[in-house]
Each structure stands twice: as C-alpha cells, then as structure tokens.
Design brief:
Length: 420
C-alpha cells in the first residue's frame, strides 16, 4: 500500500501529466485534489496526445480517477472530457466529490470582468472562473456538486445567490441575463449527466487506504502559484502545496508515504507576475520554441528562463519533497552554455531564500552558476547514456537541493524516461 503525491515545484507546466502517467502503471486510484479547469496536463502516447483539464491523467491507463472535494468543478468541461474519452472507446472510471464546489457561468464571466478591471495590473488568469469560485466557497455561498442533484436545494440557492451576482455584473459592466429558471434547469441537466459519478470521495478514499490500494494524488499548477506561498497576488486561488493533498481529498497526513516534486530543467510561467530568471532574448525564444511552451489551456506563449533553484528549494522545503522527477532535459540539448540560478543579489546581499515582497522580487539580480552545454540527451535511457555535461548538470541540482532525482525525462513519450 502506498499513498504518493506529485507536486509541481515551479509555476506549473513542469510535465506533471507525463510523470503522473508514468508513475500510474501500478496505481489503483489517481486523485485531483485542488484547482480546476485552469490546469492543462498533457500525456503523449505514440501519435496520440491527451489533454486533461479536470480528469486526472491516470484515467487513460484505465485507473479510477477521483475528483476530490478540493477541486472546483466546471461541469461543462467535465462532461466534455468524459465524452471525448468515450468517443475514443475509453470509459472513464470516475468518482466526483459531492462536496466539490461548482464553477458556475457567473464565475467565468466575473473572472474575465475582474481582469479587464485590473487592466495593466491583471493577473493573467485562465479566465476559467477559478478565483471567483474559490472566493464563493470560502465565503460560504458556493454551489456544490451534490446540490446539482436536488432541484429544490439548487433552486433555493440560485434564488439567494443570483440577485447579488446580477448586481455585481452591473458594477463590472457585464451584460448577461442570469435567469434563475434557465440556469437552474441547465445545471440540473449537468447534474443528471454526472449523477452516476458523484460520491462521498473522502469516504471512498479512506476505504481504499484501509484496503491497501495504491493511490496517487496529482497536483495541479505549481508551488509558486500557491495562494499563500507563491508570488501573491500573481497566483492561482488554491493551495498547490503538498499539505493541501490532505485537505483537498480527506486523506489524513498520517497516510502519505511519499511526496514527489516535478522540476522542469528550466523555468516557465504563464500570465503576469515576477519571474527572476526570465530570458527576454534569443535563448528564451529558443526554449519556448524547442520546448513547445504554449499553454495547454489558453494557448498563450509561456515566458521562459533558466532553472531557478531558489524557487525549487522553496517548494521542496514547504512540501517536504522526498524525491524529484526532472523533466524536459532534452530541451536544453544543443545550447553552448547553460545556467542555473543559485541565489538572488539584492541591496548588497545575496539572498538564499525566496522573498515574499514583490518590490524585492522585481529588483533583484539572479546569481548564476554556468555549465558547459551538451549535444543530445533525447536518446538516453540510462543515466550513463547521458553526456558528461548533462550528468554534471543533474548532479549539481541534486547536490544543491540535497534531494535525490529518481526520474529524468528526455522527451514527451513514455519511453523517453530514465529511472535512477
Ligand atoms: P503539466 O501541466 O505539468 O502537466 O505540463 P503540461 O502538459 O502543461 O506541459 C508539459 C509539456 O511538455 C507537454 O506538452 C508534454 O507533452 C511535454 N513534455 C513532458 N515531458 C517532456 C520532456 O521530457 N521533454 C519534452 N521535450 N517534452 C516534454
Ligand atoms: P497546470 O496544472 C501554468 C496561472 C495563470 C495565471 C494564474 C492565475 O497545467 O500546471 P487562474 O486561472 O488559476 O486564476 O490563473 O495561474 N495558471 C497556470 N499556469 N499552469 C497551470 O496549470 C496554471 N493554472 C493557472 O496563467 O498566471
Ligand atoms: Mg499544464
């Protein structure tokens, strides 16, 4: 029996989808515990590319997928993903928490409207309604998945909530008719379509733990997008750190056996906010093109830069990472020199930890360690197959973080993976 958690250690898009698929082979249940359809996880199998926003990546291996209480569920996206899998003759085995909050149409409209209002200071959200939905959850005026299965409960909640949302939309100048009857009917229909999957997932997960099942919890986003520990307010609206794997699923911290951090061999971020090692030059462009760094959810170009180990160490400390999966090493193939950030210079001092103050973040200078580049890692299948320079790069990361790298990914395909 083991319960493992996979966490992104940067600003998302570290390759969690590929690593989760890889680790899923012998797993019984794969669980999403936070975030919503802002996530975009890609799994490539031969010529087929699967992109998931809500379903855990393990469902293509026929594993039981769990969308737990901490996720915010957009039923339109969920139904679409279920139907897409069915059209490929894959019947997803799925459980959706009755406690998970529902992303409503007004959350998506308000997400866009708030971004417009912020103008130059916008966060650059995915506009999937994530912030407004989590705000309602915490303010205790959310609609939960279980409510979609009961007409009386849903109508009563709509009657209470919609007049306030109408006023809010007016403030933001959004022209949309929130008709109580229309919306109640629409969301009841969604409820019918997912009724068979709705469960008390915390009960089911704890039963699975007791029965000795293998469970993998799949994080979305990354630690730098965590609402407490990331580059606030340029973050998402959930906790992405390992601790939330418990709150977001109902599995006790007592049962977590291993926490795995996914680190991309360089850094990317989508949307606004500080990014100390960002490269606005040809190398940045090269990483973007070679790494295919365009958002899975919004198609936006991802900002690119050198690997920042101050960031990764911050993530590893807060999450208590036991072992690392290093991804996209092949994207650095062919560069003459590669750099890793090992500290920040600010006010005549070298900071060795990640500051919370945006003004410091915007004015610091990264301190780099420089390495010789290498030609090719893509064909390597063992650590010894890697060029010496690439091995030095990997060993440096391990030694700096004092955490073992157990997996190295040198391509998007399943077999382009080295285990150590
Ligand atoms: P996630 O959000 O963390 O699951 O990551 P995304 O799926 O958004 O972005 C990672 C992208 O890189 C996807 O297109 C993957 O297919 C691809 N990918 C994953 N690992 C590797 C790798 O080792 N090398 C290369 N070249 N691509 C990879
Ligand atoms: P995966 O799981 C990268 C970013 C958005 C924006 C900020 C807030 O694929 O790694 P939100 O819509 O969550 O309110 O947007 O968070 N963001 C992501 N960036 N990967 C993701 O998910 C992200 N999910 C949200 O770009 O900067
Ligand atoms: Mg992604």
């Amino acid at each position: 029996m083991s319960v493992r958690v996979v966490i992104g250690t940067q600003w998302g898009d570290e390759g969690k989808g590929k690593i989760v698929d890889y680790l899923c082979k012998d797993v019984d249940l794969v669980v999403r515990f936070q975030g919503g359809s802002n996530a975009g996880h890609t799994v490539k199998i031969g010529k087929k590319v699967y992109r998931f926003h809500l379903l855990p990546s393990g469902v293509i291996r026929g594993k039981i997928g769990v969308i737990a209480n901490g996720v915010v569920v957009d039923p339109e996206v969920l139904i679409d993903e279920i139907e897409r899998l069915r059209s490929e003759n894959i019947e997803p085995k799925l459980m959706v928490s009755d406690r998970a909050n529902v992303v409503m149409i007004y959350h998506k409209l308000l997400d866009g409207a708030e971004e417009e209002y912020l103008g130059r200071k916008r966060i650059g959200t995915t506009r999937r309604g994530i912030g407004p939905c989590y705000s309602d959850k915490v303010a205790r005026r959310g609609i939960r998945v279980g409510d979609l299965l009961d007409e009386d409960v849903l109508r009563e909640k709509m009657e209470l909530i919609l007049p306030v949302k109408r006023e809010l939309m007016k403030v933001y100048g959004v022209d949309f008719d929130l008709d109580i009857e229309d919306l109640t009917r629409r969301y009841l229909e969604y409820g019918e379509k997912i009724r068979e999957f709705v469960k008390d997932t915390s009960y089911e997960l704890n039963k699975a733990v007791r029965e000795g099942k293998e469970i993998l919890l799949e994080g979305a986003q990354g630690v730098m997008l965590d609402v407490d520990f990331g580059t606030y307010p340029y973050t998402t609206s959930s906790n992405t750190v390992a601790g939330n794997a418990c709150t977001g699923s109902g599995i006790s911290p007592r049962y977590i056996d291993e926490i795995i951090g996914v680190v991309k061999s360089y850094t990317t971020r989508v949307g606004g906010g500080p990014f100390p090692t960002e490269l606005r030059d040809d190398i940045g462009k090269h990483l973007q093109m070679k790494g295919g760094e365009f958002g899975t959810t919004t198609g936006r170009a991802r900002r690119c830069g050198w690997l920042d180990l101050v960031v990764v160490r911050h993530a590893c400390t807060i999450c208590g990472i036991d072992g690392l999966a290093l991804t996209k090493l092949d994207v650095l193939d062919g560069l003459r020199k590669v750099k890793i950030c090992v500290g920040y210079e600010y006010g005549g001092e070298v900071l060795d930890r990640f500051p919370s103050d945006l003004r410091i973040l915007e004015n610091l200078k990264p301190v780099y360690e420089e390495f010789d580049g290498w030609r090719m890692t893509k064909k390597a299948r063992t650590f010894e197959d890697l060029p010496k320079e690439a091995r030095d790069y990997v060993r440096f990361i391990e030694e700096f973080l004092e955490i073992p790298i157990n997996i190295i990914s040198v391509g998007a395909e399943r077999e382009e993976t080295i285990t150590l």
